[in-house]
Design a protein that fits this description.
Length: 601
């Protein structure tokens, strides 16, 4: 089978803010071009994982090849790369964009431009992609296509006069999108006669085929049986299979310039493949490698411990399985006086953390305790050396610390005007420094520099709740800045609970400590003795609450009469017991930890 002429190829991504209809549009395009029969067509085929489907968010970038016969009578190959919309996965967006010539910019015609619309479209513009604006949801009575067109021009600065108007839900405008892809997006321009040069876009583990590598061929041809070299990893493999997805897997003999597809080559682990690496012909290598990507670095850390210590090995195995397909998730063993053996885990952000935790609990049936999330602090010691601190429990003695620096982010928030006051207040409380405020029609766009430490604590939930869900938010890491940071410890019955200790800014310590003590007071069940709960910095107690002693046995009020009721109570206690951890003489229920994680002001 010969490879496709480049003039008939279009490679594109869809960029959008969350919920503006990217997945629905992708489904429609697959359906309209006959990639799957109606029977095979399940809702949102590109979102393959259960959790994605349930939450309606796209996590792993996927690619499908569509065959399209255009009005000019020619057959085209359209490669659609799906991209995730959430800030935690911005890295996956950037690598998908690097493999394309064009992008559909999908904007909800009733909502308009949002924070992630901006973040994603700027990435596409930075990658020199041709942008095709698409206004979705025009079936909604609230749709205002003309106003949103003007908004796109004003805010993003691209021509939106010929934006395609569609409803991905009802199917209106889908044929126009397909025609616009062919007529308005450029074809790839590779050199067919040059040595093979391909970009490694993504890789994942498949239980039948082993590691599957998604690639974009730039120049030359990738053929079955050929010996390839991964230039960055400096490894050599023999190609076993070559093909593409429709989304069904279709094997072919070779892929030519401009094509997107996959290869398998007995690669053992996903960790052996580097996203952005250059793949070339080992016999006739390309002269120059592609610039490559920086690997995605975990920015949020937390401890994950099994509720039942006997599940430790199972947890290790489950994490290993998840990591096979998610190189941005990291874990290493950790032991805590309070929680026993577990793992210190690194994530791209809070959503990533929640998803991994949920998958471990749901797919592997594990009961977990998560400690409060933390960021990476850079500590300068008095002896001149530096260290990265991932876990507050490992903080060196304050006498040895010269300076602690924390990561800062640049956040962009778009909001209807009426919520602006409350949002500015929230950012201010979180030590934010305002850097810009402008208006996009009736909506305010505000830019803040914020310490990431203040954002990992429920910032996003608070933002959503004070704006009734209307504010949108996007951020990127900027730098580390020194701050007056202290270690806040929580003592239960005089014993420090290492899993609850955290680094906080001195100005926030009392508020955080007090809130934590108040929460714990309600969450720790009464015992036969009085339990003091204290928050402390160094040796100094800054807040205190008390759990009063219990007076009598819970079953006493059953007077021994109603035996079923008594048994029920005992069962309930047993169930509760399973989820408890012992701290000295005190049992603390799992909810106390979850509450610490979700701590409100
Ligand atoms: N009325 C209407 N609703 C739509 C249309 N397109 C999508 N939706 C709905 O909007 C919601 C979000 O659509 P998705 O396709 O999941 O959005 P998405 O942008 O892929 O979201 P993420 O995968 O989370 O980034 C769903 O409830 C869709 O049914 C449309 O044209 N009209």
């Amino acid at each position: 089978m010969s490879t496709a002429p480049q003039d008939n190829i279009r490679n594109f991504s869809i960029v959008a803010h969350i919920d503006h209809g990217k997945s629905t549009l992708a489904d429609r395009l697959i359906q309209a071009t006959g990639g799957l029969s109606d029977r095979e067509m399940k809702e949102q085929v590109l979102d393959s994982m259960d959790i994605e489907r349930e939450r309606g968010i796209t996590i792993k970038a996927q690619t499908v090849r569509l065959d399209y016969k255009a009005k000019d009578g020619k057959n085209y190959i359209l490669n659609l790369m799906d991209t995730p919309g959430h800030v935690d996965f911005a890295y996956e967006v950037s690598r998908s964009l690097a493999a394309c010539e064009g992008a559909l910019l999908v904007v909800d015609a009733s909502q308009g431009v949002e924070a992630q619309t901006l973040a994603n479209v700027y990435q596409a513009i930075d990658n020199d992609l041709e942008i095709l604006p698409v206004l979705n949801k025009i079936d909604l009575p609230a749709a205002e296509p003309d106003r949103i067109k003007a908004q796109i021009e004003e805010v993003i600065g691209i021509d939106a006069s010929e934006a395609v108007l569609i409803s991905a839900k009802t199917g209106i405008g889908i044929p126009d999108v397909l025609e616009a892809i062919v007529t308005r997006l450029p074809p790839p321009k590779g050199d067919a006669d040059a040595p093979l040069k391909a970009m490694l876009v993504d890789s994942w583990y498949d239980s039948y085929l082993g590691v599957i590598v998604l690639i974009r061929v730039i120049d030359g041809h990738l053929k079955k049986g050929m010996r390839i070299r991964m230039m960055g990893a400096d490894a050599v493999y023999d190609v076993e299979r070559v093909g593409y997805f429709t989304p069904k897997l279709v094997p072919v003999e070779s892929l030519g310039p401009g094509e997107i597809g996959f290869l398998t080559a007995s690669i053992k682990e996903v960790a052996d493949t580097r996203v952005g690496d250059t793949i070339t012909d080992d016999k006739k290598p390309t002269a120059e490698a592609l610039p490559g990507f920086k690997p995605a670095q975990p920015v949020v850390f937390c401890g994950l411990f099994p509720v039942d210590a006997a599940d430790f090995e199972e947890l290790r195995a489950a994490m290993g399985r998840l990591r096979l397909n998610d190189a941005s998730f990291s874990f290493e063993m950790e032991s805590s006086a309070a929680l026993g053996f577990g793992f210190r885990c690194g994530f791209l952000g809070l959503l990533h953390l929640e998803i991994i935790q949920e998958r471990l609990e749901r797919e592997f049936n594990l009961d977990l305790i998560a400690t409060a999330p933390s960021v990476i602090y850079k500590i300068l010691l008095t002896d001149g050396s530096e260290m990265d601190l991932h876990n507050p429990a490992d903080m060196p003695d304050v006498m040895k610390i010269e300076e602690i620096a924390e990561p800062w982010i640049r956040a962009t928030i778009l909001t209807p005007d009426e919520y602006l006051g409350a949002i500015l207040k929230l950012c201010q409380e979180r030590r934010g420094i305002q850097s810009d405020l402008s208006y996009v029609g009736t909506r305010a766009m505000v830019t803040y520099d914020l310490p990431l430490n203040e954002v990992v604590f429920d910032f996003y939930d608070r933002l959503k709740s004070i704006s009734k869900g209307y504010a949108s938010f996007d951020y990127h890491l900027t730098d580390h800045r020194p701050g007056d940071l202290v270690k806040l410890q929580i003592l239960v019955n005089g014993e420090p609970v290492d899993a609850l200790s955290m680094l906080v800014h001195r100005t926030q310590a009392e508020r955080r400590g007090r809130a934590m003590c108040e929460k714990l007071k309600d969450l720790i069940p009464q015992h036969l003795f009085v339990i003091p709960i204290q928050a402390a910095i160094g040796g100094k107690i800054i807040a205190r609450e008390t759990v009063r002693a219990m007076r009598k046995d819970v079953t006493a009020k059953c007077y021994g009469g109603d035996i079923t009721r008594k048994r029920k109570l005992l069962d309930k206690q047993k169930e509760g017991k399973r989820k408890m951890r012992q701290f000295g003489k005190v049992d603390i229920p799992q909810e106390a930890f979850i509450a610490a994680l979700k701590m409100d002001d």
